[in-house]
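Summary of Year 1 activities. Much of the first year was spent building the evaluation harness for sequence design. The harness presents a backbone, in tokenized form, and records the residue chosen at every position. We chose the following record to illustrate the format because it has been used consistently in internal testing since the harness was completed.
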């Protein structure tokens, strides 16, 4: 058994297949992939990695298994999946995933090949585990995949408290012990038919995170068995998860500085692939350091690399609310966005690389579809909690379209972007507060 001192969960005890997986190259690589990407440019202490998060997910999975009475080979499978659930992440976590998916057709949880080969595959087979089955659990497949990737998964429970701890932001605090203690499985036949359409799935927090939920393929139900729910009397427990995510979104995950820096790195990654022999498959297997070195050494991306290294970031030329953005822009795919960037740059008289259009995904709230038991019936949280509607409204109100450019060009780019995108210049959001000298008696 290995005991690890963790900042969030105190001592984590690791044994069995998880202990043997710990020192495989695929897991150790996660020490060099930051959990929150560029958020450290806003919160300097947010330097925690996917490695320590994986330990936390394993710990919570083990606690949940103890509570649910799951042991033997099934427990081994789930613990292995928990330890390995992030090994498919590329540099800067989710930030470059849309780019690599367009070119490879794979998301971070498409790990079949990674788990079947090399040291990870050897460890799994030595413990009598089928790598393909573990990869399915990582992707959230089947009844027990819900523990690893679902509305009430241990992944979500760990990253919320860990992100809150390392940023110093108090909003992500949830009672993980109560969550794992109140989890239970129930058959779908027991679920109450409370009417209404199911909630839309989408990007789970407005960041660049991509997973089964964003692809619309997984709804939290076990394809071959019961559904993971919170036991009777836990509506408020589920609401705390929803509220934590909603509060963390604007102050951490979609903070303007984090969004601008991530958009710049996405542009650098695209330019790197266009200017060098680097492939998207190779990019997926880089860690943060590999990627920063690659864009630093490439002439086509050297300026963006310097700006990131020195925190000399582009500025907001446009910052527009959801309702002020035309539908054609909301619906634009990647190629459409590239075309719009070129049109804005031409209208502003600047180089195309000096214009970055950032259109976030449609607002969504995956946690609202979590199921809770009320008076013996299994109900979706969105049907039971009045908080859901208010938080959805707040989420839409927080949505912003961004157009970014070097500071000297922001005025020109802003005017050109408003014209090209069909925005009302008078409706653009101004959120920069200038310092004002004052005295106490003026308050």
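For this record, the design step produced the sequence shown next.
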């Amino acid at each position: 058994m290995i005991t690890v001192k963790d900042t969030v969960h105190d001592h984590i005890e690791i044994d069995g297949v998880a202990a043997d997986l710990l020192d495989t190259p695929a897991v150790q690589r996660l020490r060099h992939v930051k959990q929150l990407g560029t958020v450290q440019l806003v919160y300097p202490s947010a330097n925690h990695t996917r490695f320590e998060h994986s330990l936390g997910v394993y710990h919570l999975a083990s606690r949940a298994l103890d509570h649910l009475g799951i042991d033997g080979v099934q427990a081994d499978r789930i613990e292995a999946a928990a330890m390995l659930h992030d090994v498919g992440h590329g540099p800067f976590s989710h930030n470059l995933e849309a780019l690599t998916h367009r070119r490879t057709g794979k998301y971070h949880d498409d790990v079949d090949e990674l788990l079947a080969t090399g040291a990870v595959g050897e460890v799994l087979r030595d413990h009598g585990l089928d790598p393909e089955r573990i990869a399915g659990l990582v992707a959230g497949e089947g009844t027990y995949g819900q523990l690893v990737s679902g509305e009430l998964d241990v992944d979500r429970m760990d990253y919320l408290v860990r992100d809150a701890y390392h940023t110093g932001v108090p909003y992500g605090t949830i009672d993980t012990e109560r969550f794992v203690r109140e989890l239970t499985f129930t058959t779908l036949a027991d679920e109450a038919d409370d009417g209404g359409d199911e909630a839309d799935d989408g990007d789970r927090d407005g960041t660049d995170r991509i997973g089964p939920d964003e692809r619309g393929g997984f709804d939290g139900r076990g394809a071959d068995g019961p559904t993971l729910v919170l036991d009777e009397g836990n509506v408020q427990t589920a609401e705390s998860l929803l509220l934590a995510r909603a509060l963390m979104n604007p102050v951490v995950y979609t903070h303007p500085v984090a969004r601008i820096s991530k958009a710049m790195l996405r542009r650098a990654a695209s330019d790197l692939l266009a200017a060098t022999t680097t492939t998207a498959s190779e990019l997926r297997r880089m860690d943060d350091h590999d990627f920063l070195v690659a864009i630093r050494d490439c002439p086509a991306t050297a300026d963006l690399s310097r700006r990131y290294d020195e925190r000399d970031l582009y500025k907001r030329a446009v910052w527009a609310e959801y309702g002020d953005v035309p539908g054609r822009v909301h619906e634009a795919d990647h190629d459409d966005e590239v075309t719009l960037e070129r049109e804005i740059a031409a209208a502003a008289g600047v180089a195309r690389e000096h214009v970055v259009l950032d259109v976030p995904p449609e607002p969504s709230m995956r946690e609202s579809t979590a199921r809770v038991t009320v008076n013996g019936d299994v109900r979706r949280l969105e049907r039971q909690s009045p908080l859901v509607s208010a938080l959805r409204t707040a989420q839409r109100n927080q949505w912003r379209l961004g157009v970014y450019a070097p500071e000297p060009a922001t005025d020109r780019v802003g005017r050109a972007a408003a014209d090209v995108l069909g925005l009302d210049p008078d409706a653009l959001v101004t959120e920069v507060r200038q310092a004002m000298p004052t005295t106490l008696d003026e308050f």
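Strands lie at 2-6, 10-14, 183-186, 227-230, 315-321, 356-358, 371-374, 377-380, 400-405. Quantitative recovery figures across the full test set are reported in Table 2.
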